[in-house]
Amino acid sequence: MSSSGPVPTSPTPDRPTAAAGGGGGTGPLSLAGLSVTEPFPPARPLPAAYDRYHPDVAPERAVVAGLVDGIDWAGLTWPAVMEELIALGRTDVPLARLSEGHVDALRILAQADAVPMPGALYGVWASRSARTGISATERGDTYELDGTLRFASGSGLLDRSLVPVWLDDDRHVLLDLDVTGLPVDPTVWRTAAMTPSRTYEIRVDHVVVPRSAQRGPEGFYLGRPGFQAGGAGVAACWVGGAARVLDVLLAFHARPNPAQQVRLGQIRADLVAAAAVVRSGGRALTRPDVDTNAVALEVRTVVAEAVHRVLASARMLTGPTGLALDDAVSHAIPDLELYVLQHNVDAALSGLGAGLPAR
């Protein structure tokens, strides 16, 4: 049942699939038309030598740089950004996580009327999970930084990161920091999922940076109009990751039986719906009068729910053989599963319900 050959990274020319013919799974299933409604962008090509297990950070950094270089990310419209992020997610979820952080950082800097460091690979480290985060003490023309950065994706790989630091419980400023010399603790990451994202923990003790590292006014990071909109971009990566899951499933089940076709059909339906919401959200974000927070909440929640269904069906399709023995399957499913868990679906659904108009 499993396929030892490479997983195709782009759709093949359109031709009927076994499922479309209504037969009993006797013909090979094509990657053509994951969606007939609107085609999915193909995955980006990766270097043949790329090895997610390689301990050296330099080759991976070069791969990420290759994925994001040559595009004016700050100048793209939201619909164009969504298409690019879907393609990155379909390429590889951990690499998409790192690429999306760079994209987000460049768009934030543009909002702040700031210029990124030429040639630098950026991220955004803003987690305050379990009361972590960075405090800042004002000392003349400098800030003294202390604290712990949790979920710092790209630790040891990125050149720079945008980091909101807290002057007190309610006041923050955004800093553009050189992060190449910060100490990294990789031992906190206990799962094989998302390992290439290098999402580790960084401890900052009495680090002094000039006030010139500040980007935007006090309160800019959380107060800017595009803060929640960036979350819709993450959802586009999830959609791409779900397309990646379907890609590897089609390679794993080259000749699916009728029962497996049911699961594949469910995945296709969920994937088409999720992509439609992301694209609709991208168009909505171009309207000047739109509530960007509401758009992002709707997009992220609908996509997250669809992706959870995709993953449940995918696990049923692969069983222990795929998850334990197939290299592509064993990465695509756990990587996406962990990535999408950053969205608290219950809290989001509560917010959507509370936002309905009273009658």
UniProtKB/TrEMBL annotation:
Annotated region described as Disordered, given as residue ranges: 1-36
Domain of life: Bacteria
Protein's recorded name: Acyl-CoA dehydrogenase
GO molecular function: oxidoreductase activity, acting on the CH-CH group of donors
Organism expressing this protein natively: Microlunatus antarcticus
UniProt-listed InterPro entries: Acyl-CoA_Oxase/DH_mid-dom_sf, AcylCo_DH-like_C, AcylCoA_DH/oxidase_NM_dom_sf
